[in-house]
## 1
Amino acid sequence: MSTDKLTQILVETVEDLSSPESLKGLFHQHREGDPLPSSKALEEIVELARSILFPGYFGQSTINSHTIKYHIGINVERFRKLLTDQIMAGLCFTRCECDMSDDLTECNRSANVIATQLISRLPKIRSILATDVEAAYNGDPAAESFGEIISCYPVIKALTNYRLAHELIELGVPLIPRIISEMAHSETGIDIHPAATIGHHFTIDHGTGVVIGATCIIGNNVKLYQGVTLGAKSFPLDADGNPIKGIPRHPILEDDVVVYANATILGRITIGRGSVIGANVWVTEDMEPNSKKYNKV
């Protein structure tokens, strides 16, 4: 094949790849002051959040009672700056009107307010994460200390990301919460949608392969094991055959429920308080409180 022919093939391929039809829904056009959210910056934000919430376990390891306020102060300021920039990127990504400098200024102002609001919620996030650490420790006879749970157990990393991302969802931040939750998914194998609602003293033993859908509601003192799926049974379609979004389609687990490995719970059903679901069980109907479902040998 001649050089001219090879060049022609490349030119035609570039034309095809650049055509509006090929790019439909797949192209984000950058505008000045309107970057995509940065995965690298969000990774630093997560690490800063972990170091603020669990000082000494993440981030600066030489921190002590005399320097803790200084280190947390420095980390909070860096956290605020990075988070403001990323929230602004997320807002601009979903708001087509951010074309003029006045719009960008308003976006930046909104991002700064939201970042500050999230920081104000960090004490609450730490408080509920402390209950998650306690639940993991009490639920695993192999665990020797809270420090081991915080340092080694994937559930705490996944829940830190989830609880951070969930607050951002509550504050109306687009895109960023999903990126943060997917970072935890990649790191731990635990997939928790940031829109799910999860109570205190929640834990996942081992964790790999757990999936928790967007409209799940999980009560207090709930424990899951590896491979559990809290998913949707079906997807109602609109007149055009497209899935209807925003409707509750995932399970509700009331307080004190235990779900063992590889169980699958599908649809908008309620698992009553105190119920136990055994390993490898498929559940698509409501369960009364204090009931059990398992495969008989």
Note: DSSP finds nine helices and 14 strands in the chain.
## 2
Amino acid sequence: MQKKILILDFGSQTTQLIGRRLRDLSTYCEIVPYNKLPEDLTEVAGIILSGSPFSVYDPKAFKLDLSKIRGRLPLLGICYGAQSLVHQAGGMVEASGTREYGSSQLTILSSDDPLLRGLSPKSTVWMSHGDTITTLPQGYHVIASTDMVENAAFRIEGESTWGVQFHPEAYHSEEGKLLLSNFAKIAGVFGQWTARSYIENQVKELKGMIGTDKVLMALSGGVDSSVAAVLLHRAIGSQLTCIFVDHGLLRLDEARKVIEDYKELGLNIVAVDASSLFYKALENVTDPEEKRKIIGRLFIEVFDKEAHKIEGIKWLGQGTIYPDVIESLNITGMVIKSHHNVGGLPEKMKLKLVEPLRTLFKDEVRGIGRELGMPDHLIDRHPFPGPGLGIRILGAITPEKVAILQKADDIYIRMLRQADLYNKVWQAGAILLPIRSVGVMGDERTYEYTLALRAVRSVDAMSADWVHLPYEFLAKVSNEIINQVKGINRVVYDISSKPPATIEWE
């Protein structure tokens, strides 16, 4: 049984960062809304209370009766979490004269405290609050202060319960990671989470859950679905059947290469070339959302048709990962965005859903893939949108435009690899614009398409910044594309960040 630290989310913008810091420490954790605390805590080793946009005395504040968990397990309150521990015990939390936001110097008052063990006597921490704890309840002892905040950190006597008014998860908190590692050690789970242990636990759970049932899975060639399929195959072998639908909007020769990779991995793969069907349905369609709906609907129809040729399917496998799960819920548990990899399939086919990666971040998925023995070129692939080049061709889609973009994109990606830049970029791709401009090639006047190149760096695609690719490299790529790809006579580079722009153009 994999013991974990449970992070109760009270709506803080940095809740995910707490999870990331713990995972970086090889410590397994999960984030749940504050009002979804499970009754059975046998798999929970410790609990962290996140920050919140509310004040503890705000009538709209998210409230949880902390007496239910205090003293049962190691407990750490961060910012709002710390103030809740004080407020509910009768202490005083009041509005600060000035909002404290930014770096502060933390002074340790109790160096022998387990939570602060190894921290420097003074270090920089990140503050972000408009309230402060002015009076601690009886039995609460201050263990660290800043110039502005006397009760910056405290411990409750006789309990493994702490509160800090700064954010140890923030990058600006110099020794925040050490503080979180101390808490993980107190909880007894520090360093226990590894790719190998995750695979072993998942294989055992999958075997017990699926039994002798058959599982069907749609594969896209992307990292998430590929790793999920290999992990499922490790658990249930030939009970898994994978369907690869080629909608004609993949990268150059990608369908053939991906199918070869899957077969080498031992997967039972059914490949379907449905490109002509997709091209016909997308003819003269220019609205981005309509494109997505058409591609999604047809994918489901093609997949469903192939699935009905296989008897006895009980489960649908999907490569959902943790950022998808987190974004799909707000802290009240209401769905605000659907992230099913193949939206609509579980409902249409009346299948049970199995998502072996749903508690992992993208970089952890890649770690699992490596531990499973998957080739680097498959698990280090850049993210690629489900609608493929359909949303990288602005305006109407035609087979001719797809061919132009495939050739240009292939040159761009190949040259990124040759220049040792591919793995320094989170995601890269080319976008064919519905803009024609005048050019001169040889002695002839041309009137051809403009191509935009995009390269961003990110962690989990929540935000992204454009990559400063060398000018010399961009010049070479531009020349190569214009010389080699008939139909393009101008290349531009996108220097927009997310937000306000998005990674994809449509």
Note: DSSP finds 14 helices and 18 strands in the chain.
